[in-house]
Amino acid sequence: MNALFSILKKNARQYGMIIALTVAMILFGILTNGIFFRPVNLTNLVLQNSYVLILAVGMLLCTLTGNVDLSVGSVVCFVGAVCGVLVVDLHMNPYLTMIIALCIGAAIGMWQGFWIAFVHVPPFIATLAGMLIFRGLGQVIMQGQTKAPFPPEFQVIASGYIPDLFGGLKIGNSTLHLFSIVIGLALIAFIIVSEINNRKKQRQYNFDVLPTGIWAAKVSAIALVLMAFTVVFALYRGFPNILIILGILIIGYHFVTSRTVQGRHIYALGGNAKAAKLSGVKTNWVMFWIYTNMAILAAVAAIVFVARLNAATPKAGQNFEMDAIAACYVGGSAVSGGIGTIIGAVVGGLFIGVLNNGMSILGVSTDWQQAIKGFVLLAAVAFDLYSKARSTK
Predict the structure, then answer these.
(1) What pLDDT score was predicted for residue 106?
(2) How many CA atoms lie within 13 A of 191 on its CB side?
(3) What is the pLDDT of residue 159?
(4) How many CA within 13 A on the CB side of residue 291?
(5) Distance CA 180, CA 198 (A)
(6) Cβ count near 124 (within 10 Å)
(7) Alpha carbon distance 58, 55 (integer Å)
(8) pLDDT at position 10, please?
(9) First and final CA of the chain: distance in angstroms?
């Protein structure tokens, strides 16, 4: 029992956010008379928040160092503007345009990373300058115009769905997307195997583990929830392409942050920069690659956002940085750095997305939505500071 309380105390923030997300979804499901849980609405929820989740994955690495990147919204605007000119005006191949967009993102990240890591300009100032620079350059390129439409090859990234290799199964007036069911089952099997292996390793090193019954209930709940959402998506049009891209990014970055030397270096830098440097961590290069990575993911988000809108607009990316930062802190990232997970940032981003979507269905004005998100962020950071203060007593 002591082990159980110890584990719950260490992971209170993460479990709390998962519970909060679940409660919010159930509440909006009831208040909207089931509209929230309709397959088309859940699909739109993923599509509408995909770019925020992509940015949140990169922003989590920044917050682990105790910093943020204020320029990501402007980078989305600038890269989107370049895509608009290349595809709409110059009729360049869409796939080549995407590669160029990613290269531009990498160049922007290296530029900002250089000033932060080697000139030692504070990240807040460097990325604030980037926010102004790339927003201005995006406006210059667009000249107040909207570039549209984009070819289907470009749009399919954000609005397409994976094909059903098995032809589908007719159920009443709906067709069940069988390939999505197979993918969902494979993901559930992967998670169960991972949980079993993690439990074995924790026992091997004499770490505290959940009692067998509670652990089995936790894994079963995860499997049931994933299966339920898989069926919901399969009853509409299957998994969207962007959901597969998100899944690959989340799994990849979760592996990097939790299972690699580079990931441990990031946590070490956030926990104590001086100690990390004395331990042999090349802290300057860690910061450089974190901000390079952030800009590359901002370029990915730009491609997704432009593909979803089917247009590049001068106002693209406004407040994206705020949503990404809020997702990380709401999802359990510590203000001082060194604490946070990719899964937590994704859960935080989904929680904010659920609030937006549910309130929109209920007819709540955007002004009130902004205010409520602000209160949620304030409460999340206050809880982090309160927990830290209690742990030091």
Answers:
(1) 97
(2) 19
(3) 85
(4) 31
(5) 27
(6) 13
(7) 5
(8) 56
(9) 23
Q: How far apart are CA 84 and CA 306, in angstroms?
A: 8
What are the mean pLDDT values of the chain's consecutive 10-residue runs (393 residues total)? 53 70 89 89 89 94 94 96 94 94 97 96 96 95 90 89 87 85 93 89 80 85 90 89 92 92 93 90 95 97 94 90 91 86 91 90 86 83 71 56
Distance CA 13, CA 367 (A): 28
Confidence at residue 13, expressed as pLDDT on a 0 to 100 scale: 61
Q: How is residue 242 written in tokens?
A: 């962007």
Distance between CA 28 and CA 45 in Å, rounded? Answer: 13
Q: Is-contact 302 316, C-beta < 8 A?
A: yes
Q: How much is the pLDDT for 284? A: 95
Question: Do 379 and 16 touch, CB atoms closer than 8 A?
Answer: no
Nearest-CA neighbor of 156 among 234, 98, 75, 78?
98
Residue whose token pair is 């998962």: 18
Tokens (6 digits) for 301: 């988000």
Cα-trace Rg, the chain: 21
CATH class of the domain whose range is 2-160+240-391 = mainly alpha
**Residues 345, 347, 353, 358, Cα dihedral to 10°:** -160
Residue type, 272: N
147 φ, ψ to 5°?
Answer: -95, 115
Task: Supply the pTM of this predicted model.
Answer: 0.91
**276 neighbors 266 (Cβ within 8 angstroms):** no
**Cα dihedral angle (234, 235, 241, 242), rounded to 10 degrees?**
-100
User: Residue 258 contacts by C-beta under 8 Å, 6 or more apart in sequence?
Assistant: 341
For the residues of 150-219, what is the DSSP string, one character each?
PPHHHHHHHH-B---TT--EEETTEEE-HHHHHHHHHHHHHHHHHHHHHHHHHHHTT-----HHHHHHHH
Q: Which two tokens stand for residue 56?
A: 């949140």
Angstrom distance (rounded) from CA 161 to CA 141 = 32
Per the DSSP assignment, residues forming a β-bridge with 31 are none
| pLDDT recorded at residue 2 | 54
What CA–CA distance (Å, rounded) separates 173 from 99? 41
Residue 188 has, within 13 A of its CA and on its CB side, a CA count of 20
